[in-house]
Amino acid sequence: MHSWTSPAISPLPASGLPLRLHDTRTGRLTPITPLIPGRARLYVCGITPYDATHLGHAATYHAADLMHRALLDTGLEVEVAQNITDVDDPLFERAHRDQVDWRELAASQVELFARDMEALRVIAPHTYASVSESMDGIIDVVQRLNARGRAYQVETPDAEGDDWYLDLGQDGALGDVSGYSEQQMMAVFAERGGDPGRPGKRNPFDPLLWSTARPGEPAWDAGVLGRGRPGWHVECVFIAESSLGLPFDIQTGGSDLIFPHHDLSAAHAVALGRGFATVYPHTGMVAHEGEKMSKSLGNLVFIHKLLDQGIAPAVIRLVLMAHHYRADWEWSQSEVDRAVERLRDYREAAALGGAHPRVVAALRQALRSDLDTPAALGVLDAWARTVRTADADLEPSAEDGAAAESGAGAEGPGDVPAAVDALFGIDLTA
Ligand code: ZN
Questions:
Q1: In 88-181, where does DSSP find H-type helix?
Q2: Residue 297 reports pLDDT greater than 90
Q3: Residues 317, 426: contact at Cβ < 8 Å?
Q4: Prediction pTM value
Q5: Which pLDDT value is given to residue 158?
Q6: Mean pLDDT score, 102-119
Q7: What percent of the chain has pLDDT over 70?
Q8: Are strands 208-212 and 163-166 parallel, antiparallel or unpaired?
Q9: Is pLDDT above 60 for 310?
Q10: What gap in Å lies between CA 98 and CA 115, rounded to an integer?
Q11: Which tens digit of pLDDT belongs to each residue from 1-46?
Q12: Preceding amide of 24 cis, omega within 30
């Protein structure tokens, strides 16, 4: 699948300081040490293309972009893969409701998503694969699981063939990523696509591997499995395996993917005799008007609508940066107003020039510390205030003074706008 055009990136001279991310699996801040030395591999769970792109999506892909940029800044080669869940119930339901072909609906939403990502200057993934174009490989993974005795059939009263499930009981990997109790799993499984109460399942959390063809739904031939379509988690297992290789370094997505999606994707890999991701950072949920953004509540804030209202992409990024990626937060107009002020102040300061190695070092440090963007904004606020005040006071030597005071003259690069562009994807010279 064609992704989008990446922004031009002018990396700073590499700084060896490792990126540290909070790992949901262990609950610890973990330095990213690539399994393949010198080459970091990042998997970002993608959209189901029927309601793209709202702010919750933007928060997730912004955080993944910061991980990508931070890894590049440490001097690593970075490989990123992302999927598109274009074979999925909500997409089919929306297509049916709107009387459009599901492929057309998916294509239009994928295009909209790409436009939004490009506007937000998110670096494009190296592999960007949809389920429909990956079908042969996904079928192959389900067949391998079946050959390893990990798949079983469940009778399907409303169709001719049987559905196939993954038998979690054999490998004991359930809960490895989430650490959730059975009660916590039960609380979210059904609302996130699971079917804990289905008769014939061996374990309530066994995930659907292959769904037999139902009338009016798209279906693919899969040999012994029969005609049908894949379950949700197996798609990411195939796309990660074929693009990055298993195991790999980081899998990220919203905190609503911790269970079942990331937990059970990893369980699939274990059932294949492989490992999955090493570190799992998850992004918080975005609320609006007092409630978590969701299509059922009708309070989604769409990126393209914000852009149409004349809100600059850099302003959206600054609003996102004002919240730590792991925090849940609420979108509001006052957030936008503050970001507009910041962008104006930062651009004014950027225009005044000067070398500030200590500021650049502090920005790098903040990004490396679990993407601490609120701290980075604190650094930039102080920088902009100092530079602008110094200029207003007509003290041409103030910048030299600041550098001398910190003893930072030879510490490293000091071009703040270049650093903000490379690390945070915001062009202050525009
Ligand atoms: Zn995924």
A1: 89-97, 102-119, 135-147
A2: no
A3: yes
A4: 0.94
A5: 87
A6: 96
A7: 95
A8: antiparallel
A9: yes
A10: 23
A11: 889 999 999 999 998 889 999 999 999 999 999 999 999 999 999 9
A12: no
Q: How is residue 192 written in tokens?
A: 């996130």
Pairing of strands 282-283, 248-254: parallel
Q: Output the CA 162–ligand 1 centroid distance in Å.
A: 25
Residues sharing a CB contact under 8 Å with residue 48, sequence separation 6 or more, in sequence order: 84, 85, 86, 88, 90, 91
Q: What angle do CA 58, 63, 66 make, to 5 degrees?
A: 125
Strand partners, 251: 43
Each residue's pLDDT tens digit, 124-133: 999 999 999 9
Could you give the 3-state DSSP secondary structure of residue 16? coil
9 CA to middle of ligand 1, Å? Answer: 27
Distance 261 CA to ligand 1 centre (A): 6
Distance CA 262, CA 256 (A): 9
Give the Å distance between the CA of 86 and the centre of ligand 1.
12
Structure tokens at 428: 């202050």
Tokens encoding 185: 């799993």
Mean pLDDT value across the chain? 94
Could you give the maximum distance between any two Cα atoms of the chain, in Å?
82
Which one, of 293, 230, 283, lies nearest residue 258 by Cα? 283
The percentage of residues in the chain with a pLDDT greater than 90, rounded to a whole number, is 87
How far away, in angstroms, is 257 Cα from ligand 1 center? Answer: 8
C-alpha closest to that of 226 among 168, 156, 169: 156
